[in-house]
Amino acid sequence: MNRRDLLTALAALSAVSRYGFTQKPATRGSVSIDFTSRGAVIPSDFVGLSYESAQLANPAFFSAQNHELIQLFRALSPSGNLRIGGGSSEFTTYSDEEAIGSPPFEVFGPDTSKTIKHGTVTTVLALRNLRDFLDAVGWSCLYGLNLGQGTKENAAAEAAAAYRIVGPRLLAFQIGNEPDSFRNRYRPATYGPADYLKEWNVFHDAIVAITPGARFAGPDISNKLPYLTAFAEEAPRHRDVILLSGHYYAMGPAGSPDATLDQLLGPDPKLATMHRRDFSIVEQAIKTAGLPFRVTEGNSCWDGGKPGVSDTLASALWCADTMLAFAQMGWTGFNLHGGGNGYYTPIAGSPSTGFTKRPEYFGIQFAQIFSGASFLTTTVAGANARVTAYALERDGHRQLVIFNKDAEAVGLTIPVRPQHEARILTGPSLESKDGISLSTIKVPRSQAVTVPPCAAVCYNL
Questions:
Q1: What's the domain count of the chain?
Q2: Are 28 and 106 in a shared domain?
Q3: Domain of 196?
Q4: CATH for 149
Q5: Are residues 379 and 363 located together in one domain of the fold?
Q6: 328, 344, 368: which is the final residue of a domain?
Q7: N or C: which end of the chain has fewer CB atoms below 10 A?
Q8: Are residues 218 and 334 in the same domain?
């Protein structure tokens, strides 16, 4: 453990001792578990990160030489998924040349209204380096192609090269990023799902004519669910479509005054109603297509995230809680968007300056603990809306996860006495940007547990 990690761990332990297990709970409630139930199983590649296609314009970023980034990816998951796409994918072109001049930047992302995306080129060297990087971290890749401003010929050439070079690390291609946002941007105001599917099929056919083994995911929408419904109806006509995909941002743009910690930690009753309706539409699309669904891009709020919200302990707790909620619904993964020095990126920095773990990094690590486990039906009663719980079982080993996204400790009665050791994700306060850690602590063997404020605790039962 280096000095920085030691100080971080000490800060977290200080927060627990100051606010945690010895503090009298502000509220009391209970958790019940149906140990006979068996729900969804968390896939081994559930953990994911999302980066902009423009990042490939610097072939040295995703490469076997970027040792620090490789270690950070490995520490998140031994078998995660890297999605390449984002808004910049509708500006990027492909060239069969090894390299074209000097890279226009060292790092790129996340894409915002202010970033310059024109002129970014993906080359054969970038794809070779990407393959080496994926081999080094053990991850698969979802690869985005330019539908918004690209040509079918260029997309087919890029797909052929990526299929050949990235090889078994390539999970699927995605044609277009957020096509439900093309209207009045790349397409006329009348553009709709039928228009998108027509274009998608043209690109698809051009790709498989050269690369018959290619596989596809889609529609990679922003939030307009009729596009997902239409794609799900189209998917069974194509045996090479293996995955439904879409994006999820908990709040609106970073510039919105409504994008606050309170809203992030919610739930807002109106948002909860909207999400239940939207999730039911996603569930119907899954049934229609007979395919799994993955969130291929998402985070707290779009347009790069908001300082004081997206880069805090609150965002780490939201991240881990949301990942488990999506996994419990049977969704197969969540790729947290980031890159560069955006406020919400889990990993910030560059090869020349070094990389930093942002708060969401620890949230992802916490969720990864439960890879391969199946959910048990769990109910929380008597606690406020910022307290959530999940029970899971893997190979006969049971765990209870309790999130307390409040500034007060909460007392809960649980059905089984926990073992002495527990894992905790915590920090000094919800607003904290530093001092956040994931560590092992001792807990009393009592069915009456006290969950510290601003923390997620994993009890072994």
A1: 2
A2: no
A3: 47-368
A4: 3.20.20.80
A5: no
A6: 368
A7: N
A8: yes
3-state secondary structure the chain: CCHHHHHHHHHHHHHHHHHCCCCCCCEEEEEEEECCCCCCECCCCCEEEEEEHHHHHCCCCCCCCCHHHHHHHHHHCCCCEEEEECHHHHCCEECCCCCCCCCCCCCCCCCCCCCCCCCCEECHHHHHHHHHHHHHHCCEEEEEECCCCCCHHHHHHHHHHHHHHHHHHEEEEEECCCHHHCECCCECCCCCHHHHHHHHHHHHHHHHHHCCCCCEEEEEECCCHHHHHHHHHHHHHCCCEEEEEEEEEEEEECCCCCCCHHHHHCCCHHHHHHHHHHHHHHHHHHHHHCCCEEEEEEEEEECCCCCCCCCCHHHHHHHHHHHHHHHHCCCCCEEEECCCCCCCCCEEEECCCEEEECHHHHHHHHHHCCCCCEEEEEEEECCCCCEEEEEEEECCEEEEEEEECCCCCEEEECCCCCCCEEEEEECCCCCCCCCCEEEEEECCCCCEEEECCCEEEEEEC
Listed residues 368, 401, 427: the one ending a domain? 368
